[in-house]
Amino acid sequence: MTIAFEKTTLPIIGAPMAGGTTTPELTEAVARAGGFPFVAGGYLTAEALASLVERMRETTDVFGVNLFAPNPAPIDHEAFADFVTALEPAAAERGVTLNPEPVDDDDHFDAKLDWLIDHPVPVVSMTFNLPTAEAVDRLHAVGSQIIATVTSVPEARVAAERGVDGLIVQGPRAGGHSGTADPTRTIDDRATVDLVRDILAEVDLPVAAGGGVDGEAMVAELIDAGASAVVVGTLLLRSDEAGTSATYRAALASEEFSETQLTRAFTGRPARALVNDFVRRFDPVAVDAYPAVHHLTKEFRAAAKKADDPHGLHLWAGTGYRGAREGSAETIVKDLGAGFARD
């Protein structure tokens, strides 16, 4: 069976960037370019996801939907309380009152999965945890292919054992949240191409790869290593169609922000961001507590966005962020995949 992301003209996948960054306009632009678009299902209700999926169907019948698979980290309540105490002065400066009680949720996962069973799509991918064998069976029963995001060889092996149809191999240099199934582990830095080779040596499944992609040369490198497609997210953040805020766009292009770092400070789960004052101040005291920390800092981050202050924002970015450029996402995707067009 051919995996759906191998059916597009270009071997480029638009990463599903949740929270409004991947807009309908962005997915449509990726599709027009001949790439594979993903609807970002994270942080949405089933009803909101349904609206985006139905709009996507009007553009193409080759697309995927990404879900956050539930995987809450056990909360050390004392450590969480210490983090709240550390954050309170900065929050007060912005007029934000923090809720000291940890908030948990499953991101409406069951409702969204049920909707996708009732309204099948070509591909469902999952991140933050591996899909269960039950979820794989349910999706296969309605004709959907299932893709797991993996960040290590052991995760790839387990995903294969559970019957997934393909893998998205996410290297540690990717922007935004790591898809690791163990958010408490230390994530060692390594090149995505090396991780791809290690996984393909162990698992016989189609692979798409991303993490630190900075341009056409790295696309070529990943495809030469055996990836069927390359996932790009950071490179689309400054595109016309992305939902990236003006503050965020300016930071990506600014010489003020010169490095990225994996941090748990914003959400309680490892995520790569531009290093700003928030990261420098709060990463040393950050705790493993997703989604509790995500909910704790949400209003703080919203206040920073409203104030046009990049130092209070989660500026997700992979190590290839200097390669992000302005212009149409359609043109960006075409340029990245031009040398690898499929027959």
UniProtKB/TrEMBL annotation:
One of its GO terms (molecular function) is monooxygenase activity. It catalyses: 3 propionate 3-nitronate + 3 O2 + H2O = 3 3-oxopropanoate + 2 nitrate + nitrite + H2O2 + 3 H(+). Keywords: Detoxification, Flavoprotein, FMN, Monooxygenase, Oxidoreductase. InterPro entries: Aldolase_TIM, NMO. It comes from the Bacteria. The keyword Oxidoreductase applies. The keyword Oxidoreductase applies. Its cofactor is FMN. Belongs to the nitronate monooxygenase family. NMO class I subfamily. This is Propionate 3-nitronate monooxygenase. It comes from Brevibacterium spongiae.
